[in-house]
Each structure stands twice: as C-alpha cells, then as structure tokens.
Amino acid sequence: MGPFYGPVKKGANRFYFHELCAIWSPNVYLIENNKLTGIASEIKRVNKLKCSYCSIRGAATKCFIDKCDNNYHVLCAKSVGCYFNNQKYILFCPDHINSKENQYYVKPKINCETASNFSDCVCQVCQSGLDEDKLLECDKCKTWMHTYCNEPQILDPPDSIEFICFNCVNISS
C-alpha cells in the first residue's frame, strides 16, 4: 500500500492514510510543493463507504461512471478485475470496463535500464516505484509491474523469465 502518512489534523481529529489510497481517491489532488490536498475530508467520506468487493468500510476508489455505486479498496479493485487508468487515476469496475466512457491509453514506455532516473519506473497497477527489486518489465507492452501486483502474483521469480503482464495475457486470450 506504500508509505503510511499522518497525522493530518482536522479540528480535534487526527487521520492517517496510505499513499496508494490517497493517490486513487477521487477528491485528493497534488498541489504545488508536492503536497496532497483534500485528505481530511476524503478520509471522512471514505469511512462511510463500504467496499463493493469485501463489504468493509474505507473504500477510497470509485468507478468512474457517475451512475455506478461501486466503491473499492485499491487492492480489492485489483482483485475484482477493475481497469486502472494510471494516467488519469480513474478506474472502471468490471461492469463498465467496456463502456464508451472508458478511453484506453498507452502509457509512455520507460526502459528502466536507460532511464535517467530509476524513480521514473513505476508499476502500471499501483503507480509506485517502491520495491524496485520487485519490478518486472512486460515483454509485450514494455510496461512495468511489481511481482505482487500481477495477477496471479509471482512469488519467486527466476533470474531470467519471460514476463507477460495480466493485461497482455487478457488481451491475447
């Protein structure tokens, strides 16, 4: 889930949050000086929402379709097969993956071996560059993914492996 941040103070309340949850929350924005805004109000909103997958409160992500009531925890959204648009930080639930509002995009490809900054290499699922030793490059689409973000997870990757991410496997199926 990435680093755990906080406390964010709002009145007498103190809130903590996961980096990944904040990034995928629809009302949290990055402003100047790389600061996140909207955290406290988003935490209050999220605490009222139950996840459409596990039924536990705290579902930060929402299907991009306005009329859809599906909310998820980030990892539950991954488990249920939501489509993550990593450029716009929006997702589509399984019911709306093929909707006309879902405009697929191709994320710029970055080769970590030639990138000027290794932090440019991020997982296409969680958008984190953390755990760089767990990042694998898909041999088809050339995007990067953590071994634990792939479905199914790759628990013990060999030194040389042909890796095809779950998105490419699903496209060719």
Can you put this structure into words, describing what you see?
This protein is an alpha+beta fold and 173 residues long. It folds into 2 domains: 4-96, Herpes Virus-1; 106-173, Herpes Virus-1. The protein has 4 helices and 10 strands. β9 and β10 form a beta hairpin. The longest helix is centred in the first third of the chain and has 8 residues, at 39-46. The chain is globular. It starts with a strand and ends with a helix. Residues 103-111 have low confidence and may be disordered.
Find the CATH topology of the largest domain: Herpes Virus-1
CATH architecture descriptor text of the largest domain: 2-Layer Sandwich
Unreliable stretches: 103-111
Count, helices: 4
The main pleated sheet reads as: 2 strands, antiparallel
Q: What is the topology, as strand order, of the major beta sheet? A: 1-2
**What is the first-to-last residue Cα distance?**
30 Å
Beta-strand content estimate = 15-25%
Mean pLDDT: 76
- State Rg: 17 Å
Q: Secondary-structure element order, as H and E?
A: EEHEEHEEHEEEEH
Oligomer: single chain
Instruction: Please state the structural category.
Output: alpha+beta
Assign a percent range to the helix content: 10-25%
Shape: globular
**How many structural domains are formed by the residues?**
2
